[in-house]
Description:
By secondary structure, the chain is an alpha/beta fold. 38% of the residues lie in helices and 22% in strands.
Amino acid sequence: MIKVAVVILNWNGQKFLEKFLPKVVQFSADFASVFVADNASTDDSVFFLKKSFPEVKVIENSENGGFAKGYNDALSKIDADYYVLLNSDIEVTENWIQPVIELMDSDPKIAACQPKICSFQEPAKFEYAGASGGYIDKLGYPFCRGRLFQSIEEDKGQYDDITEIFWATGACMFVRAKIFHDLGGLDSDFFAHMEEIDFCWRAKNNSYKIMVCPKSVVYHVGGGTLPKSSSRKTYLNFRNDLILLYKNLPSNRLFYVFIIRFILDYIAAIKFLVEGGLMDFVAVVRAHLSFYKSILKNKEKRQRMKHMPVTEVYNGSIVFSYFVKQKKFFSQLKFPR
């Protein structure tokens, strides 16, 4: 068994592998084995890897099952203490692995941890998908230390403390392998987007911790597979958020949250339409229809799970705080301690 396996999931991402894999290999060589799990790419990714990086182990998945199934299939073939789920469009830095593993070694209750994620294009700023740790509000809207909706903060060291968070980004998530498999891995029905939040919520429902370790820093391009403004991404985000809430919320909050989310989702859909985003409007409607169609399947998943009060949830509405109260910085939010 190896201690740490860095696993990059690739789908037609040869240009990212060419650009970012050399530093992954360079800064992981003494601490981890590097794998690339290929999701049935149709470009020359696999040929390029075998020719240019013979030291990197390649796992060829039989289909493009998305982020969740792709990782589930690949990680089932890797025997390690820790997995590092790493996007192909991330630039790692020297000493990016050691601080996180040292933190996780210190506490067996830590299921997952992320480094600080900054923007590759604007290194002085946090990156949208993770920043310095993920949270949700009481209605299930995700946000980050350093990013509320589209407001992204400059990194001035204000979130450099090691702390417990609600979710760790799948762009660069360190996870304890035994817990990953004990909890059933990622939910393959998510395909992509929010499956890491679902995993972290399930871990917290089983009394595990999710952490951020800003001593480790990586830089993320973002939008490598789906662009940030994509109706497909809109569909996945709205559908998967509904599945996330239905699976994980305690029963006493389920009806209340879904009534409010139904109203807010359709307000968002109308806003898309007014602003000329017809396909995003359609995506929200499709997301709801898909959720209702799959509700029996998700009910079975829900019935197999534990549900308990969890920490690192913002007890207000991030939508209200951001758009009405004009709170644009994470530090302006108050969390009970």
